[in-house]
Write a sequence for this structure.
């Protein structure tokens, strides 16, 4: 439509009022059921949601922002004519960058406004100030970086290269001296963190027992020592043995999952990606995405109410240990726990920006079977997402809905699989697929087990089944074993009493002495070997015991 009215010298002429009315008519069609829109006046500059009559008053009394030439917040898009006009490419890029900055801050601050809530004045002013920071060039005339984009780039550089705060403060001073005057580069790391703080959804620091016996939360929140092993919650000076109260010995970092899932649905483009799976199931019986898997169909069959809403999330959990200090030493092992969202398209669900870090389990020793202690807060959130769900706002349909989620499987290597599932991964019953029907053989001179029953997974008429000398000297007549169901596994582990925590040196030595004292090799009775080491915390999830055990080994 004609936009000459935006530049009229007077707002009292009928042409200006007529242009405002046409603008509001277009904005009303774009807003549809919403009663508020962003106000594009010179003061608000698309930073505040207001009712239509309020926007009309602002545009008449204060005038429209003259730089807002393409009404991207009110239903208009860039036309091919605008893109082809000479000299307009830079304007388009600048306004596109402004639009991205606006959406970034809107997701952090005013998404609740979309759901019909009124934003407080304090948050409103905070939003305006931060939006100005996002749109401010790094220095006058700079078209490459804004203050926000420069801070994000530099902070990423600091994290990637392991700069200390002191060294990075010196680097910022050097860069500040090189840039032109009146640059907006922060002077120190503290100022950078203060600018980025609004995007931080936060994480919880949960103190843990040094021996992995428990987390100091809920009823143990005020304890100063572990109720099981007696270890101090606080650091102890090795020389003076003085307890440094207030300095925890071990800290679990927990990143709550639910607020991040809710935020994803506040972005209209992301919602379209989250329901992608509902329209892209394979039609040629080939697997291109987990939506084509047997596990996905099993969930749809067992819980049709959950499957009826494509916005409900299907998650996978991945974990393994690594040394965060950049060397190959095994003296320290830190374990991140990451969630994968399988609702997203194939190229997005495994992209690093869509992998959700939920737990950071500290070292120096790996948690082993005691990893369940650290998984408690995550499993509680997963249980809430399944039992009752959470209220979330869908930016695509402009409505509230009850969001639920299910954990489909875990992704890990074989040792980590044993820690999560609680099954034995070495020794006589080292195969969780074969179970008690395993074909294991003890090699006397090598002093280890070998598993030579792999031929039974071949076709019945396969020639390798008849070979003797190539394998264990016998023909293979057995068929492949049937994998256990989740219910069968649950019945096998339901009576196991978990005993968390690492054994201390004194406890191990006393136990060894007692064994040596009471042991009589001549009358020794061989105890049955257990296939399961613990009852996994995942069985606390209502759906886990009735689902099939799905194993993915990279």
């Amino acid at each position: 439509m004609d936009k000459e009215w935006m530049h009229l010298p007077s707002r009292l002429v009928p042409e200006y009022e007529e242009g405002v009315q046409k603008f509001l008519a277009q904005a009303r069609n774009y807003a549809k059921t919403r009663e508020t829109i962003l106000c594009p006046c010179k003061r608000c500059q698309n930073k505040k949601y207001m009712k239509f009559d309020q926007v009309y008053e602002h545009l008449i009394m204060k005038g429209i922002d003259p730089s807002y030439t393409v009404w991207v917040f009110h239903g208009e898009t860039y036309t091919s004519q605008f893109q082809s006009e000479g000299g307009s490419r830079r304007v388009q890029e600048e306004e596109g960058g402004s639009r991205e900055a606006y959406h970034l801050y809107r997701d952090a601050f005013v998404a609740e406004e979309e759901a019909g809530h009124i934003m407080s004045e304090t948050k409103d002013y905070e939003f305006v100030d931060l939006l100005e920071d996002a749109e401010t060039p790094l220095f006058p005339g700079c078209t490459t970086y804004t203050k926000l984009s420069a801070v994000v780039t530099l902070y990423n550089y600091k994290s990637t290269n392991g700069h200390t705060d002191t060294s990075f403060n010196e680097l910022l001073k050097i860069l500040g001296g090189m840039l032109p005057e009146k640059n907006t580069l922060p002077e120190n790391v503290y100022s950078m963190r203060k600018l980025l703080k609004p995007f931080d959804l936060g994480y919880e620091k949960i103190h843990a027992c040094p021996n992995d016996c428990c987390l100091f939360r809920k009823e143990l929140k005020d304890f100063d020592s572990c109720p099981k092993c007696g270890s101090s919650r606080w650091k102890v000076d090795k020389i003076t043995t003085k307890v440094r109260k207030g300095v925890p010995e071990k800290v679990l970092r927990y990143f709550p999952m639910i607020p991040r899932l809710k935020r994803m649905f506040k972005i209209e483009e992301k919602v379209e990606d989250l329901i992608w799976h509902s329209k892209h199931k394979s039609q040629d019986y080939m697997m291109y995405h987990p939506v084509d898997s047997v596990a996905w169909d099993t969930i749809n069959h067992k819980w049709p109410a959950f499957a009826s809403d494509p916005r409900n999330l299907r998650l996978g959990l991945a974990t393994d240990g690594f040394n965060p200090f950049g060397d190959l030493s095994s003296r320290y092992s830190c374990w991140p726990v990451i969630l994968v969202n399988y609702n997203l398209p194939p190229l997005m669900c495994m992209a690093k920006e869509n992998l959700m870090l939920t737990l950071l389990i500290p070292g120096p020793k790996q948690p082993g079977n005691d990893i369940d202690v650290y998984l408690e807060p995550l499993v509680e959130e997963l249980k809430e997402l399944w039992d009752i769900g959470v209220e979330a706002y869908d930016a695509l349909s402009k409505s509230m809905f009850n969001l639920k989620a299910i954990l489909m499987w875990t992704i890990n290597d074989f040792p980590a699989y044993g820690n999560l599932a609680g099954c034995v991964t070495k020794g006589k019953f080292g195969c969780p697929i074969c179970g008690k029907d395993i074909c294991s053989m003890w090699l006397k001179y090598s002093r280890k087990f070998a598993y030579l029953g792999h031929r039974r997974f071949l076709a019945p008429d396969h020639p390798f089944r008849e070979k003797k000398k190539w394998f264990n000297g016998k023909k293979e007549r057995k068929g492949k074993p049937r994998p256990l169901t989740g219910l069968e596994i649950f019945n096998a582990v339901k009576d196991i009493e978990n005993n968390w925590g690492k054994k201390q040196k004194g406890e191990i030595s006393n136990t060894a002495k007692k064994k040596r004292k009471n042991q009589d090799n001549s009358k020794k009775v061989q105890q049955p070997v257990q296939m399961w080491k613990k009852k996994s915390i995942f069985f606390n999830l209502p759906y886990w015991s009735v689902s099939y055990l799905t194993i993915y080994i990279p």
Q: What stands out?
A: Residues 89-109 form the longest helix (21 residues). Residues 147-199 form one domain. The first strand starts at residue 36 and ends at 38.
